[in-house]
Amino acid sequence: MAAAAAAAKAAAAAISAGAAVALCTERAHAEGGGPMFRFPGFSTPSPAPAPAAPPPHQQPPAPAGGRREEAAEEVPRVSTQHSRTSAAGFDPAPLERGVEALNKLKQAPDPKKLFELMKKQEETRQQEFIAKKAEEQRALAQLEIEKKHIDYEETKKLDQQRAKMNAQTSQYEDELKRKRMQAEHEAQRMRNQELVKMQEESAIRLEQIRRATEEQIQQQRRQTEKEKADIERATITLKSVAEADARIKELRETEDVRRRLLVEEIKADREKWIEVINTTFDHIGGGLRTILTDQNKLVVAVGGLTALAAGIYTTREGARVVWGYVDRILGQPSLVRESSRGRYPWSGSVSRATSTLTSKLKNGSNLGKNGNGFGDVILNPSLQKRVKQLANATANTKLHQAPFRNMLFYGPPGTGKTMAARELARKSGLDYALMTGGDVAPLGSQAVTKIHQLFDWAKKSNRGLLLFIDEADAFLCERNKTYMSEAQRSALNALLFRTGDQSKDVVLALATNRPGDLDSAVADRIDEVLEFPLPGEDERFKILKLYLDKYIVKAGDKHEKSWLRFFRRQPQKIEVKGITDDLIREAAAKTQGFSGREIAKMMASVQAAVYGSKDCELTPGLFREVVDYKVAEHQQRRRLAGEEPKQNA
């Protein structure tokens, strides 16, 4: 017991000494001293020294604003976060733990073991404190790293903003340069436009001056030629007057002699004719006396005269009947207006052979008058190509003995439907016959017979025949219309009967301005439909050149071959001056809406205007005048044609 009491006293003394040392240590630590005294088990672990400052090249970037100054002013401070820590930094917790441990040792039955246990607990608490301090240091290091990262990000953003501002500045400068260059280019372009405009105005002024000079020269030339013609006419008049005076003087001198000779000649002729008349009447009177006195001779004379009259009448009527029969069997039907075949099989054979040979020779040397192998027919290129294909197909159809295909041509009047049909027949090697639908209605009840005769005559062609019916809607219109007569219905039915099957002898080609009026059965018999529109500007230009060459340039080249040409006045040659392709193209642009027939009639009007002028020459002014007049006339006709349906309505 005494030993135990001694151990307890020793432990109490040790604990008291440890508490005093711990108190001194805490006080020294609170006053800023370092870890000079360490008593394991009873002393509070001192804080770890602060990490060494990084070298200058590893210093983190200085914080923005005044943070750098605040960081410089920071100093170590005593931690006062514990609830029981005093303002001077003294913590009484260790002293209290020592007192509490001392009380436990006094009360414990085995103070030594309790002391060892309390020592181990204190060591464990110190280790936990060290681990916690290490964790706090790691957190502080992490905060420092994050601070450095934040400073780096801010510096990076600042650099990026500076680079962006520099890029924007460069882009703005480039934009200013581009705008300045665009302004310079626009100013240069405006200057170029003004220069080109000035050049065009100068060229126009020069052209106007040239035209005025040319007109002045032409006017002076016309004035000179007019004065020359006046002088020639005055000279001819004076010469004629002188010659007339000389002839009058000569006639006056020989008048008496001629009068005497004429009187003697008249007397001689009168005596001769009187003698002839007397002799004739003497013979006639003797014959009549002989016949009247002899009864037999009178009967014979009367019978002979009667037989002669009867023979003449019989011969005339018989010849008329026989010729009518021959004409009906072999002749051309009355419905045909024009045909490449002669009226009779033997008529025109020599001329047809000659024309065929001539056309073959011409086709071998050139392609036609207008250079396209289609004669004088000028059509739209696509339509012309289609007509050529039909001509080749028709020729091959005849060669292979296949059925022909019927055709329908429709379009405005004067667009070349008839000419195209004629050229199609010529190209395909067929004969052609032209008729008009208006000739059927006047025939009345004879129309059916005439149509059958027409088709019978067409089948006799050895080469095949293209039957072209112009104005087909005149008798092939819809049968439901009330104004259609019974004879017209019969004629329509006859044509439908003759065209019900595909024919190997006849090609039926219909032409109309109103295809919608045709009967549905007629439309069902059509295999090919071609539209002939009004000519375009290029086609009008070609047609103008064609008829200019035909009516103006070659107007006086055709000479009559009969002996009457010696008694007729020859046409005067037309002189063409200043008619260029540009002038013709200008006329083609003005004649918008003209058909080919209207252009041909306009060129005939130009020819008439030239023949009506004094000098018989075609000038640009005269040509433009006639073209403008015809264009105004065409527009007036269109206005009248547009007003007439309104008045009827």
Automatic annotation (TrEMBL):
Residues 46-63 have a biased composition (Pro residues). Keywords: ATP-binding, Coiled coil, Membrane, Mitochondrion, Mitochondrion inner membrane, Mitochondrion nucleoid, Nucleotide-binding. The keyword Coiled coil applies. Residues 32-92 are annotated as: Disordered. InterPro entries: AAA+_ATPase, ATAD3_N, ATPase_AAA_core, P-loop_NTPase. It is found in: Mitochondrion inner membrane; Mitochondrion matrix, Mitochondrion nucleoid. One of its GO terms (molecular function) is ATP binding. Residues 403-536 form the AAA+ ATPase domain. One of its GO terms (cellular component) is mitochondrial nucleoid. Residues 126-237 form a coiled coil. Residues 66-76 have a biased composition (Basic and acidic residues). This is AAA+ ATPase domain-containing protein.
